[in-house]
Write a structure and sequence with these properties.
about 150 residues; 7 helices; mainly alpha; about 65% helix
Length: about 150
C-alpha cells in the first residue's frame, strides 16, 4: 500500500509539475509534444528510449523532493509548483519588457497609438501576399501551410 501510494504521488507530481520542470532556459514556452520530445531525447538521436524517459522523470521528481528523502510530500509539491509559477511569471515579465522596448520605437518609455498599431504591420504584410491591402482566407491558409 505504501509503495502504491508513493508511486501514485510520484506520478501525480510528475504530471502536475511536468510543464514547470520542463521549462526552457531561454524562457520560451515549454510545453507541447514537440518540446516534450526534444526534452526527453537527451542524446538528440531522434529516438526516446525508456532510459531517457526514466531519467527525465527522475530529474523532475528530484526537483520536487526538496529534502531528498525519496518521497514527494504535498508540501514539497506545493512549493515546487509555487517556485515554478514564480519562475514562469518572471520570464513572462522579462519577455513583456523586451516586447515593450521593441515596440517603443522612440524610446520614450511610452507607447503611442502609432507604435502600438505598428506591431501588427509586418504580419499583415507577410499575410497579404498579393499586396491588395486585404487578407483573404486563402492567404491565411497558405501562410499556415508554410509554417508546417
Amino acid at each position: 500500500m505504501t509503495r502504491t501510494l508513493t508511486l501514485a504521488i510520484a506520478a501525480l507530481a510528475t504530471a502536475v509539475a511536468a510543464s514547470n520542470a520542463l521549462a526552457n532556459e531561454d524562457g520560451k514556452r515549454a510545453h507541447g509534444p514537440r518540446h516534450l520530445f526534444e526534452r526527453a531525447d537527451a542524446d538528440k538521436d531522434g529516438v526516446i528510449t525508456r532510459a531517457e524517459v526514466d531519467a527525465m522523470h527522475a530529474e523532475m521528481f528530484a526537483r520536487i523532493d526538496a529534502d531528498g528523502d525519496g518521497f514527494a510530500s504535498k508540501e514539497e509539491l506545493a512549493k515546487a509548483r509555487e517556485k515554478a509559477d514564480q519562475e514562469r511569471k518572471e520570464k513572462r515579465m522579462t519577455k513583456s519588457q523586451k516586447r515593450f522596448q521593441r515596440m517603443d520605437a522612440d524610446g520614450d518609455g511610452q507607447l503611442s497609438a502609432e507604435e502600438f498599431a505598428a506591431r501588427g504591420a509586418p504580419m499583415f504584410e507577410r499575410l497579404d501576399t498579393d499586396g491588395d491591402d486585404a487578407i483573404t482566407r486563402e492567404e491565411i491558409e497558405a501562410a499556415r501551410g508554410k509554417r508546417g
